[in-house]
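Human:
Focus on the backbone:
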Amino acid sequence: MPTIHPVLGDTLYIAQEIDSLPTCDTVHIFKPDPSIHYHAFCDDFGPMNLAMIAQFIGQLDAELADNPSSMLFYCVDEGRRELTNAVFLLGAYMIMRLEISADEVMDCFSWVNERLTEDYRDATFSAASFGLTLEDCWRGLAKGMQQGWVGVPCMYENEWGMVDMEEYSHYDDPLNGDLHEVVLGKFVALQGPHDLGALDFSDDARGYRRFSPAHYVDILHDFGVKTVVRLNEAEYDAGAFAEQGIAVLELPFDDCAAPPPHVVEAFLAAVDGAGGGSVAVHCKAGLGR
């Protein structure tokens, strides 16, 4: 059923299941950029990462600048997940570009409910046991801005707060390491390395790329990593990191499960004992545990 909801006064609306509107100078429609999307692992569908948020901010900035006197309608496809991701991006824009508080964003989307949208879930095909809400995501983004970790750059700059977006996008690529600095100067998350003999990386028949510990050594040094925490079963010799001055802590537990108390305690102790360095964390795929 076609729907239209207000977002920002009489300036910006979100529409669903609407392909066209009457053409006039005061109405302009635009649709999601195909390059702004979430790469699903299983039945997960978001939220979009920081690079996608940055692209959307650029898209919406351009739409507003090109149509200063028009009512803008952001038209998205049918489906709760499609609407959820569209609402998330619009809220992220309001927090980052317009510096609106998370509470005010929630007020702007007071019409959102569980019939229209869906909580984000973990990367499995099993029934979700925990839902990450839009409010959770927006408050996290607002907190990151409050801490100075992330922000909108000045013109012609690529530093989004403390995040170099070019570097972020480079390592986000599964062909370049599948790695993120989650908390700047504190935590790095990465795909689990593999023993590959003399190879730095290896591609399987599906195009999935695996990396050796050697591939990550210089990268982790650049991020100031002193300790790697391995949460899955061993698939490489820990000595490959230890010989390069990076300790490896073994804390395996079941995939897609909450870590047991002793793992949490050991992890927190490792973080406290990192001596000012960062801690890198991985499971098999880098997402899940």
